[in-house]
Amino acid sequence: MTNDPSYRDNQKSNTEDNNTLTNRQGHPVTNNQNIRTVGNRGPATLENYDFIEKISHFDRERIPERVVHARGAGAHGYFEAYGTVGNEPVSKYTRAKLFQEKGKQTPVFVRFSSVIHGGHSPETLRDPRGFAVKFYTEDGNWDLVGNNLKIFFIRDAIKFPDMIHAFKPDPVTNIQDAERFFDFCASSPESFHMVTFVYSPWGIPANYRMMQGSGVNTYKWVNSDGQAVLVKYHWEPKQGIKNLTQKEASEIQATNFNHATQDLYQAIERSDYPEWELLVQILSDDEHPELDFDPLDDTKLWPEDQFPWLPVGKMILNRNPVNYFTEVEQVAFGTGVLVDGLDFSDDKMLQGRTFSYSDTQRHRVGANYLQLPINAPKKRVATNQSGGQMEYYVDRSPSHNPHINYEPSLLGGLVEAQQAGKEYTPLIEGRLVRQSIDRSNNTQQAGDTYRRFKDWERDELISNLVGDLSRCDVRIRDAMIALAAEADEEYGRRLREGLKNSPKGGSSQKPLGNKNGDQAPDKAVNIAH
Ligand code: HEM
Q: Which residues are catalytic?
């Protein structure tokens, strides 16, 4: 797990030793039932090292929760490449080594999650699900940090903190409020396609094994000639896809709020290993003026009939974590973590995300988070970075002169690597502006998605939207009805009719729940984004 020999020695002696309890200094603990006191009725003494160490460590057992995606489950496994993309050799599009050879295996760690609520929130809530994969490749780590749904609510990173504030509990009551959620969405019409998915059964996957994954944002692949294409990544579950109605979800939630973690853990324990195929969609690297949407807009699907899903490999999860905290809680994924042959696009969400992940992880886990076994690459790491809290080892190998912790140097030390292939050097030109993209086309694809849904999915969508919108201010309802009508005439009509007889909104606080007595209990807790 790590390239540090002392870590391995320590693990080894821990497994070989007898079962004697020690403190963290290695001293045997002879009494773990009583603190040291003056007489058996006290008072206690302050020099009681075993007690102070134990209680002080307990006081620090938690690290900050992820600001989003706090509730999650994880597993280890491997990715196996096909060596091809569809019928072509993958090398035509990317030189990334993990994809090149048929049958080549790369270890992975995956963390699934829900987004809005805290670390022990129910796994039945209506919410996108996170699908983050860390590939420990021979060229270092690649993180593909995706969701189950293929699109997102917003297309500009500057809106993300506002969006999350609106979706999380009210800062005064600490209760999630449908009115705040829809207030943001009605005022951000680009979110309507995602709202359409999230309020349909696709907003409650039955478990983590039976859901798709997607990179959502647009990336690039670069080949050995330095030529790039735009790509989108998709994971397709071999187990099939299963989503829940609100009623089914509420029934599960009444008895079990850990059902998805449990399902994943138990499947792996009984050797029923979940598997996903990785597929990509490819577009040439340009603006595509012929399309009615921008390929860098993450609120849009790339239509499958125009841009087929091409298989490139498969992933199997076959090992549960040994410890939840050290692996699932401390794992740190980021969109900036790419390997040679993979690149960013100019997608504005992706660019904003790429700053945010490592920034939060330096705060959440600590400056040396990349030295933890779950985050460290399974290959040689050699940097001149050192110090900071909890530095665990020096990244440089002992064969290098330990005095030379800088570069360049005539006296030894680390040297720059050779470029692996021809560098990709796109020409970028334009005025610095703060402007939305053209071709925003906010509702057309939401209409296509509505029409593609099965009848029961449309029924659920309308019923779930009516349930939560009925508790919102009338201005918000009207704006949402207008967006639905713009997307599809029937969608707008059904939403308008559904809301017609519900009580008018207007008060400032509408906590989720059966407050107005106007909905069945199974519609009481609809959103949890
Ligand atoms: C987690 C920021 C959009 C998927 C996080 C975290 C932050 C963040 C700060 C917590 C990371 C940690 O503590 O380790 C942002 C920002 C976004 C954005 C600023 C938009 C500008 C998205 C989108 C997706 C996504 C579009 C889906 C493709 C995830 C996932 C996690 C996560 C799956 C959890 C990773 C894990 O399991 O540890 N995000 N995010 N995020 N985000 Fe985003």
A: 69, 147
The whole-angstrom separation of Cα 217 and Cα 156 is 11
Rounded average pLDDT over 91-105: 98
Question: Which of 63, 67, 68, 372 is the best mutation target for the ligand 1 pocket, counting ligand atoms within 8 Å of the beta carbon and taking the most?
Answer: 68
Q: Which residues have C-beta atoms less than 6 Å from ligand 1?
A: 66-69, 72, 111, 113, 130, 132, 145-147, 152, 157, 160, 216, 331-333, 349, 352-353, 356-357, 360-361, 364
Q: What ipTM did this prediction achieve?
A: 0.97
Name the strand (E) or helix (H) holding 277.
Answer: strand 275-284
> Contact 175/181 with Cβ under 8 angstroms?
no
The rounded Å distance from CA 13 to ligand 1 centre is: 38
Closest ligand 1 atom, residue 74 Cα: 37
Tokens linked to 347: 């997608």
Distance from C-alpha of 411 to C-alpha of 102, rounded to nearest angstrom: 43
126 C-beta neighbours (distance < 10 Å), count: 23
Cα gap 410→424, rounded to integer Å:
30
- Lookup: tokens for 342: 């993979």
Average pLDDT over residues 282-307: 97
Locate all alpha helices (DSSP H) within 76-215, ordered by sequence: 97-100, 160-167, 178-186, 192-198
35 CB-near residues (< 8 Å, 6+ apart)? 44, 48, 51
- Say whether pTM exceeds 0.90: yes
